[in-house]
Design a protein that fits this description.
Shape: rod-shaped
Structural class: mainly alpha
Radius of gyration: 24 Å
InterPro entries: Homeodomain-like_sf
Strand content: under 5%
Number of domains: 2
Largest sheet: none
Length: 139
């Protein structure tokens, strides 16, 4: 199936520039795919050159068709909802009342309060970022 897309001159200029200069690699890949499409290369060849499957290539074309270059620039990564930062206020209040003696104790408290199990390194980073002191660093 041939996908028909139109590329105005100003869009071609943006595709040409941002396929190498955009700071996000996935956006560069999208721009490159559309740049090659604007030169009427076969989809299989574009997919091979850009190193994506043809389904992904069709997704790029659909993005462009629906939202133009701005849609190609949009990056939406899924982010897990179990981030302790979402519980920062309640954890900070808990640790102000009950300062942890060790990172192990803080790790156990975070798990008990939020259901989120993090490694000691991540717990230490979280505590430091939220200015919560631990008496000693090891258990």
């Amino acid at each position: 199936m041939t996908v028909r897309l139109e590329f105005p001159h100003d869009t071609l200029s943006v595709l040409k520039d941002e396929r190498y200069s955009h700071p996000v690699p996935i956006v560069q890949r999208r721009m490159e795919a559309l740049w090659l499409k604007s030169h009427n290369l076969p989809h299989a060849q574009i997919a091979a050159l850009v190193d994506v499957c043809e389904n992904t290539l069709r997704d790029y074309f659909e993005l462009y068709r629906e939202g133009g270059v701005e849609a190609l620039r949009a990056v939406r990564f899924h982010r897990l909802g179990s981030d302790p930062d979402a519980h920062a206020a309640s954890l900070e209040a808990h640790f102000r009342e009950h300062p942890p003696a060790t990172l192990k104790k803080a790790q156990d408290d975070i798990e008990a309060l939020t259901g989120i199990r993090r490694g000691r390194t991540q717990v230490g980073v979280f505590l430091k970022k939220n200015s919560i002191c631990v008496a000693e660093k090891s258990a």
